[in-house]
Amino acid sequence: MSRDQRIFDLIQRMRDGKLRTAAELAQAVGVSTRTIWRDMAMMAATGIPVEGERGLGYILRSPLVLPPLMLTAEELEALMDGLARVGSDDSAQAKAARALRFKITTLLPQAGLIPNPEDLG
After folding, report:
1. Which domains does the chain have, with CATH numbers?
2. Would you give the distance in Å from CA 105 to the centre of its chain?
3. Which residue ranges does the record assign to the Helix-turn-helix type domain (predicted)?
4. Are 22 and 54 in contact (CB under 8 A)?
5. How many CB atoms lie within 10 A of CB 22?
6. Do residues 104 and 75 touch, judged by C-beta distance below 8 A?
7. Does 4 or 64 have the greater pLDDT score?
8. pLDDT average, residue stretch 67-92
9. What is the mean pLDDT of residues 43-53?
10. What Cα–Cα distance (Å) separates residue 82 from each residue in 70, 104, 119?
């Protein structure tokens, strides 16, 4: 996993505003706690609102949101259906399609059109 992907995954895991230990985050993304310490320091230095310290844990203080991409329900359904079809095997493109579907579902409103990622297959 690239560092950029790991940072994205860490941010996604921390979006709920809960305090997370470095050990918990390290296990979730498959790296050492030392790597998490470095990633958190880099994130804070670049302006990502992460706070915390070694031994206590880390928290994302304010939500990170992207500008809205306005899709109709039909457009979203077509996009998700297409990604599901591409993501149905073990190729690199299929893995990328599944990752993109996950990213899209995390950006949907809580009362969004797709209730949870498990329903996406």
Report:
1. 3-60 (1.10.10.10), 73-120 (no CATH)
2. 10
3. 6-59
4. yes
5. 23
6. no
7. 4
8. 85
9. 88
10. 18, 13, 15
